[in-house]
Amino acid sequence: MRFRVTHITAYEYKDAVALCRNQAYLLPRQTPWQHCLISTLEIDPQPVDLRERLDPFGNRVSHFALQHAHKKLTVTAKSEIKIKTDPERFAAANRNSWDQLIPQLRSNKSPEILAALPFLYDSPLAGSSSALSDYARPSFPNGRPLADAAMDLMSRIYQDFTYQPGVTTVATPLSQVLKTRQGVCQDFAHLGVACLRSLGLPARYVSGYIETLPPPGQPRLVGADASHAWFSVFTGDAGWLDFDPTNNQLIADQHVTVAWGRDFDDVSPLRGVALGGGEHSVQVSVDVERVSEMPT
Q1: Model pTM score
Q2: CATH code of domain 2-83+268-290
Q3: Is residue 13 a contact partner of residue 93, using CB atoms and an 8 Å limit?
Q4: Measured distance CA(201)–CA(229) in Å, rounded
Q5: Is residue 136 within a helix (H) or strand (E), and if so which, with residue range?
Q6: CA 198 centroid distance within chain
Q7: Element housing 148 (H / E)
Q8: Sign of CA dihedral 271, 277, 282, 288
Q9: 89-266 belongs to CATH 3.40.50.720
Q10: pLDDT (tens digit, 9 = 90+) per residue, 80-128?
């Protein structure tokens, strides 16, 4: 599957901004199942400095600075991505039970397990707790295959929680989300991550996009898509397996991966500091368009 993604973030300030520095996680990363063919970052006004690096988790991070007065800032990320699916990944992740992995994390010093350990421990937005362990436990009886258990946790989050924009923010604690049973994809991704960590399993927060399809007979609305988030669990020899609790889907060929981290704070799409500006408004538009495969 091949997609063209356009992500536009537009800031408008009441007063002029004298200078600003920003950091962006907007360019998709390369993975074994995803190849980023083209990616560009367009900034208006033109920055005096624009550079890219890889963070400790291998994500692509863009840094840019503006040193002249401006009342508007538009950041446009354009990418073209090719995604391939591996139907054997789920079966491979199911070869061992989830509780068989726990002692391996303590004793095995393979590069894969060492790389997974940073995602085992609490992070500011996805910390473990006894309440989260209690919620996750029915999906993880002793001896249950790991992929099946994570799939069941995903389905329970989908069934138990209501997608309701506006009731949470980035700062809303998971204890509140667990109590109200409402939130958005970011909350549900954090919930899945924290539940898995509460059981002793490495889990990471994944940011990206999902292709949304219009109802039959209706045209696709350009710019109607949005940033998305889901969780991923480490399965040992089979690597990482991703689950989308907002849509109750195992990640396949409709999801575009941008970055992953311990939680949202590690991979916030766009953040920075500005001198001046006062009150401001932000508009975000994301378009995920399926494009035809080019002939070989």
Answers
A1: 0.93
A2: 2.60.40.2250
A3: no
A4: 19
A5: helix 130-136
A6: 20
A7: helix 146-160
A8: negative
A9: no
A10: 999 998 888 899 999 989 999 999 999 999 999 999 999 999 999 999 9
